[in-house]
Amino acid sequence: MTNHELRRKILQMLYTCFTEHPYHRITPNEFTEDLGVTQRVLDFNIVYLEEKGYVELQKPLEGSIFVGARITPKGIDLVEDEKKFSELFPQNR
């Protein structure tokens, strides 16, 4: 899976979660289990998405990069704009 495909899947997971439970955050373990990626690969991609403003990370005082993630309004708008979403994060690259 490419980074673009992984980022797309992360955003889709967060979007689905938000539509069901807006204040629920997805944990790193949920991501790694559902997506089949290592923590290192997840961290790289989730921080990228945070820096772009698409996700919000709940950060611990020390230790891991994050303990929970949720999609931002900017991320929701992106997922709902299928053309732009596919341009930025194509499924097959």
Automatic annotation (TrEMBL):
Per its UniProt record, what Gene3D superfamilies does this chain match? Winged helix-like DNA-binding domain superfamily/Winged helix DNA-binding domain
**Highest taxon of the source?**
Bacteria
Q: Which InterPro entries does the protein's record reference?
A: WH-like_DNA-bd_sf, WH_DNA-bd_sf
Q: Which SUPFAM superfamilies match?
A: Winged helix' DNA-binding domain (SSF46785)
Q: Please give the name of this protein.
A: Uncharacterized protein
Species in which this protein is naturally found: candidate division WOR_3 bacterium SM23_60
